[in-house]
Design goal:
The complex is a heterodimer of chains A (about 120) and B (about 110). Chain A is mainly β. Chain A is built from no helices and eleven strands. Classes of the chains: A mainly beta (about 120), B mainly beta (about 110). At the A-B interface, β10 of A face β7 and β12 of B.
């Protein structure tokens, strides 16, 4: 069974870069046709799709975050990563990694990590 | 972006009674290539990630009880819990994937 686990700093200073990693177990990212996704949820609020990335390096980001987001995949470690630049307090949220069931285009999200809280504060 | 609006924001339902959650999209999410609606439903309990319930508007994910039913087409969708159980207390979200994915604001279901 595919499992995902987020990791990374829980506290990031304003204007710096938020960097998170998702480790996948139970499946090989490198041999998968699926895309790997980041979604975030501010405390007590709704869900926001950040973007998705494929092993080939193909990525697709939320237009509202596109200028600050980079995602990448490391098949050798079975991990994928999120970098969000120039963060502000508005980026404080629980960040989830998930598997996108879509191939060519985004679809639904069946497998999720447990989420990691990132607070942006000085 | 396609904006997803759920109603109500919260509802209280007696055990064994029906719960109905509505989701409206600002544009049609019907995919003409396969005549399917790009709409999913999730259940989120406190401290947990969302759990996929339904995709393509009406297809239940494996293992999801059949008391959960998704319906609708175009811009108007409904999630119905036919007989509410205590374990169904949660926040429910709809999500469209016709374009860059977006979620509704959530509907809190209580007993």
């Amino acid at each position: 069974q595919v499992q995902l686990q987020e990791s990374g700093p829980g506290l990031v200073k304003p204007s710096q870069t938020l960097s998170l990693t998702c480790t996948v177990s139970g499946a090989s990212i490198g041999s998968s046709d699926f895309h790997w996704t980041w979604i975030r949820q501010p405390a007590g609020k709704g869900l926001e799709w950040i973007g998705r990335v494929h092993t080939t390096g193909n990525s697709y980001y939320n237009p509202s975050l596109q200028s600050r987001v980079t995602m990448s995949v490391d098949p050798s470690k079975n991990q994928f990563s999120l970098n969000l630049r120039s963060v502000t307090a508005a980026d404080t949220a629980i960040y989830y990694c998930a598997r996108d069931e879509g191939l060519a285009v985004p679809r639904w999200f069946e497998r999720w990590g447990q989420g990691t809280l990132v607070i942006v504060s000085s | 972006d396609i904006v997803m609006t759920q109603s109500p924001d919260s509802l209280a339902v007696s055990l064994g009674e029906r719960a109905t959650i509505n989701c409206k999209s600002s544009k049609s999410v019907l995919l003409y290539s396969n005549n399917k609606n790009c709409l999913a439903w999730y259940q989120q309990k406190p401290g947990q990630p969302p759990k996929l319930l339904i995709y393509w508007a009406s297809i239940r994910e494996s293992g999801v009880p059949d008391r959960f039913r998704g319906s609708g087409s175009g811009t108007d969708f409904t999630l119905t819990i036919s007989s509410l159980q205590a374990e169904d207390v949660a926040v429910y979200y709809c999500q469209q994937y016709h374009s860059s994915p977006t979620f509704g604001q959530g509907t809190k279901v209580e007993i």
